[in-house]
């Protein structure tokens, strides 16, 4: 019994087992510490990733890059008739009010636009550049007479490169900027536009509207476009918009309606229009012009007094009371700041 008890004592002693060498113990401890540090780093990175996703979700604009260099971006518009001078001037003022980080460049037809009209747009902040007309293909056959000058819009691609811009946004003179859209200048696509809205059965079409365009200026692209005008099959009645829809049909991004809030949307879906009000950046006055109608002008220069006489709260324009008010507020702000210089243009 005594002998068995002695054996049991030897088995139960901890020093009976072979001890791990001290150097090996130190190696295990070092690995344990490294694993703890790695786990902490991983946890921090995971938290940062989750925060990044949350911020991107809360800020839709972050889907675009804002990496464009100061002075390398431009907003373009065009002027083919004197009647749109005050429209273009108000557009320019709205761009400046929204603190858009870009140069303002206006292309005009030298033989169509008067020095008085150019004086008005320059007073509002536009840099005026004369360009020659791009004649419609097929001798203008099948093109609505109001659109025959619109192919000249394509010159923004060539002039943009000549002037040294690497990113640009084009806006029709019947648009109004309500919020900053600098993110479009960092857009990682070559071309972007918003799908169109119609009053007929098409309503929200798959084709895009050419009143607001985000693009990369390029002389090569311009030359390629001009070379294909006569050869491309598209609805001629839609002029340059029909052509651009075919030209960029497989190589573009469709921008949200906030970048081209076409008034036709209000007819097509008033609920959607009311939701857009919270985010819309560019309003497009497609169905009613706050600065022009056939009663006061065809292609003639209008005065501020004539524009004020266009009342959006009466008759057929009752539907557009609020939207006309948006434009009128910017127009009156323009006249408050630049009214003396603009009035001098009429002398």
Question: Could you give a quick summary of the protein structure above?
Answer:
With 347 residues, this protein is α/β, with parallel strands linked by helices. It contains eleven helices and ten strands.
Describe this structure in words.
40% of the residues lie in helices and 16% in strands. The chain is of the alpha/beta class and 347 residues long. It has a single domain, classed as Spore Coat Polysaccharide Biosynthesis Protein SpsA, Chain A, CATH 3.90.550.10. A hairpin with a 6-residue loop joins strand 6 and strand 7 (204-215). The protein is globular and about 90 Å long. The N and C termini lie far apart (130 Å).
How is the secondary structure organized here?
Layout: H1 2-12, H2 22-58, E1 73-79, H3 85-97, E2 103-109, H4 115-123, E3 127-131, H5 155-162, E4 167-171, E5 175-177, E6 191-197, E7 204-215, H6 219-228, H7 239-247, E8 253-255, E9 261-262, H8 264-268, H9 270-276, E10 282-284, H10 304-308, H11 321-344
Parallel strand pairs: 1-2, 1-4, 2-3, 6-8, 9-10
Antiparallel strand pairs: 4-7, 5-10, 6-7
InterPro entries: Glyco_trans_8 (IPR002495), GNT1/Glycosyltrans_8 (IPR050587), Nucleotide-diphossugar_trans (IPR029044)
GO molecular function: glycosyltransferase activity
Protein name: Nucleotide-diphospho-sugar transferase
Percentage of β-strand residues: 15-25%
What does the overall shape look like? globular
Strand order across the largest sheet: 3-2-1-4-7-6-8
Query: How many DSSP H or I helices?
Result: 11
Multimerization state: single chain
What is the mean predicted local confidence, pLDDT? 84
Number of β-strand runs: 10
Radius of gyration, whole Å: 32 Å
User: At the third CATH level, what is the topology name?
Assistant: Spore Coat Polysaccharide Biosynthesis Protein SpsA, Chain A
Class computed from helices, strands and strand pairing: alpha/beta
**Any idea of the CATH class?**
Alpha Beta
Transmembrane segments: 34-57
Protein name: Nucleotide-diphospho-sugar transferase
Pfam family, one: Glyco_transf_8
Organism: Tetrapyrgos nigripes
């Amino acid at each position: 019994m005594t002998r068995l008890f002695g054996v049991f004592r030897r088995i139960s002693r901890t020093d009976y087992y072979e001890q791990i060498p001290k150097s090996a113990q130190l190696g295990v401890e070092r690995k344990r510490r490294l694993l703890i540090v790695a786990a902490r780093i991983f946890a921090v990175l995971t938290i940062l990733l989750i925060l990044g996703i949350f911020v991107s979700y809360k800020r839709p604009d972050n889907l675009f890059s804002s990496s464009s260099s100061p002075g390398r971006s431009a907003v373009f518009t065009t002027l083919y008739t004197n009647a749109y001078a005050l429209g273009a001037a108000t557009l320019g003022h709205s761009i400046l009010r929204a603190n858009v980080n870009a140069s303002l460049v206006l292309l005009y037809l030298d033989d169509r636009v008067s020095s008085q009209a150019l004086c008005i747009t320059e007073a509002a902040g536009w840099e005026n550049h004369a360009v020659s007309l791009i004649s419609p293909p097929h001798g203008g056959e099948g093109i609505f007479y109001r659109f025959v000058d619109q192919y000249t819009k394509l010159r923004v691609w060539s002039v943009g490169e000549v002037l040294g811009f690497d990113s640009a946004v084009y806006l029709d003179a019947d648009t109004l900027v309500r919020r900053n859209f600098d993110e479009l200048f960092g857009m990682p696509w070559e071309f972007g536009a918003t799908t169109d809205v119609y009053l007929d059965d098409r309503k929200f079409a798959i084709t895009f509207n050419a009143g607001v365009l985000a693009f990369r200026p390029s002389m090569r692209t311009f030359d390629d476009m001009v070379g294909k005008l006569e050869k491309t099959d598209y609805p001629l009645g839609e002029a340059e918009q029909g052509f651009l829809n075919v030209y960029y049909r497989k190589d573009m991004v469709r921008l949200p309606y906030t970048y081209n809030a076409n008034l036709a949307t209000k007819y097509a879906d008033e609920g959607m229009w009311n939701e857009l009000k919270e985010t819309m950046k560019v309003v497009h006055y497609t169905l009613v012009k706050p600065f022009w109608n056939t009663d006061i002008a065809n292609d003639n220069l209008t005065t501020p007094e004539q524009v004020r006489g266009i009342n959006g709260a009466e008759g057929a324009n009752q539907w557009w009371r609020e939207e006309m008010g948006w434009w009128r507020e910017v127009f009156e702000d323009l006249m408050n700041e630049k009214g003396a210089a603009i009035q001098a243009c009429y002398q």
